[in-house]
Specification:
globular, 7-stranded parallel beta sheet, PKS_NRPS_Biosynth_Enz, Rossmann fold, KR-domain-containing protein, ADH-like_C
């Protein structure tokens, strides 16, 4: 290999490995083509910078992750990358950000040098027929295979019809199932769809998803209207995609206001054919400290709002989908079964916690979200709710075998997952029956009954230091159970809040 005269031996020695890696990954394996998009991780490194140069030579759209502001400024100055195409490599939220900027399309190529969970996350933003290139040896055995969730969109709903047709004996030749994107839900471009709470985090995500699936008329109902950068950005993005969007101020729990808004807009928009109800009000308080007005404000969108929407919107709709939580959800579950008994489409989604958009993302720090996962919640990502919503919008829910099919459970752990985490609340008598979920752990209750008597150990301690060690051991064991983390992972020299201990966990301790 010839060395240019203006390139020193020291600089030249650093190039071959990085250059060959970037060239082999992007050009040989990924076969990056002009006008495709590529996500390059750790882009300020040697491989990353050479990958940027190769991608620019191909005429590709470049997205990058960096770990510091200085590295971002370096790459902007050297390569002129759009400032909106930078993401932080220190957290896993970049996946949803990439999907938002690419209007839900994702990227054609991912050049990934990250490890651990960061290896799996970018897989979520790869387009159909995209390419995922992993460089580096770390975790190569632990992640010998990646989850195939992105391929679920290739599934076909025509298998049952095909096999039943073959059973009739009337066929000649073969019955072919057509694997096309038309198998997914497509929204009617000549209909209007209403999203209550449409300017909240989850509502915005659903609105973008519906626009990608063909919706051209959207009415987003919100008590605050299109205020704030996120709401304004959504409106601009949807208008750029040719979507006619209406964002009236409307409290759905006020029937008079809702009726006035619907009557005003139905003169200028196509017929309303579907509803997504994601509106919510959160008033956090312990139940014995909650006032009646706080309790009522929380329930109103889910109970009064749901009934008002049912009463005012047309009955001849394609879908009526409810998101819910806690007490308000008990009503919405019963309401969905009532609608099915009346021959009306309706589904209620037990959605659970969503980390990257919505209330948790906007009101909780990362440590509290991690605590949720420790205490038994299966935390969802932004795109996860789209799949049950797609099912709830399909004709499949209009002819269920049972009214109970109207309730869709999301983010439910398997029995093995629940017991593996050994949540502290499972020790309470009311939950002890969960140990019978399979016979492998039937004897667990008896085993746990042989608890250590720490009071006796403290009394037997010969000095304050020894008593302190007993107390520290007891607290560490209880904290390990409350957070569902191994005891050896807890450093007793660190403050409790560093483990994500909030007020609720502190009360348990």
């Amino acid at each position: 290999m010839l060395r240019p005269h203006d390139l020193s031996f020291i600089k030249a020695s650093s190039l071959p490995l990085a250059a060959i890696t970037a060239h082999y990954g992007l050009n040989h394996l990924a076969r990056l083509r002009p006008r495709e998009s590529v996500l390059i991780h750790a882009a300020a490194g040697a491989v990353g910078q050479l990958a940027i140069q190769l991608a620019q030579k191909q005429g590709a759209t470049i997205f990058v992750t960096v770990s510091t502001k200085k590295k971002k400024e370096l790459l902007m100055n050297l390569y002129g990358i759009d400032k909106n195409h930078f993401f932080s490599g220190r957290n896993l939220n970049f996946t949803s950000q990439v999907m938002r900027i690419t209007k839900g399309q994702g990227v054609d190529v991912v050049l990934n040098s990250l490890a651990g969970e960061a290896l799996v996350e970018p897989w979520r933003c790869v387009t159909p027929l995209g390419r995922f290139i992993k460089i580096g040896k770390r975790d190569i055995n632990a992640f010998a295979s990646l989850p195939m969730a992105p391929f679920a969109k290739n599934s076909s709903s025509g298998f049952e019809e095909a096999f039943r047709y073959l059973q009739t004996g009337r066929h000649s030749g073969n019955a072919v199932v057509d694997w096309t994107v038309e198998d997914t839900i497509k929204f009617n471009k000549n209909s209007t769809y209403v999203i209550a709470g449409g300017l909240g985090g989850i509502g915005r995500s659903i609105a973008r998803w519906m626009a990608i699936r063909g919706a051209k008329y959207l009415m987003l109902l919100s008590r605050s209207g299109a205020k704030g950068p996120a709401a304004e950005e959504l409106v601009e993005d949807l208008k750029a995609q040719g979507v006619e969007i209406r964002v009236p101020l409307c409290d759905i729990s006020d029937k008079t206001t809702l009726l006035s808004v619907i009557q005003e807009y139905e003169r200028t928009i196509p017929q309303i054919r579907g509803l997504i109800h994601s509106g919510m009000v959160v008033k956090n308080a312990m139940f014995d400290h909650m006032t009646r007005s706080e309790f009522q404000a929380t329930l109103d969108p889910k109970i009064r709002g749901t009934w008002n929407l049912h009463d005012i919107l047309p009955k001849e709709m394609d879908f009526f989908v409810l998101f819910y939580y806690a007490a308000g959800g008990a009503f919405q579950d019963a309401f969905s079964r009532y609608c099915l008994s009346e021959g009306l489409p309706c589904a209620s989604l037990d959605l659970g916690a969503v980390s990257s958009v919505g209330y948790l993302a906007e009101n909780m720090d990362t440590s509290k979200i991690i605590t949720l996962s420790y205490t038994g919640h299966e935390v969802l990502d932004e795109n996860d709710p789209h799949f049950p919503v797609e099912y709830a919008c399909s004709p499949a829910v209009q002819n269920p075998e049972s009214p109970w099919d109207a309730q869709l459970l999301c983010a439910v752990s398997t029995p093995a997952q629940v017991k593996k985490k050994e949540h502290a609340w499972m020790q309470k008598p009311v939950f002890r029956h969960l140990y019978q979920m399979d016979k492998e752990h039937v004897g667990r209750v008896q085993e746990d009954s042989t608890a250590i008597n720490y009071g006796a150990l403290i009394k037997e301690a010969k000095c304050l230091e020894e008593a302190g060690d007993v107390i520290a051991t007891a607290l560490a064991k209880r904290l390990s159970r409350s957070l569902s983390v191994p005891g050896e992972d807890l450093d007793l020299n660190k403050p409790a809040y560093s483990f994500g201990v909030d007020s609720l966990v502190a009360i348990e301790l």
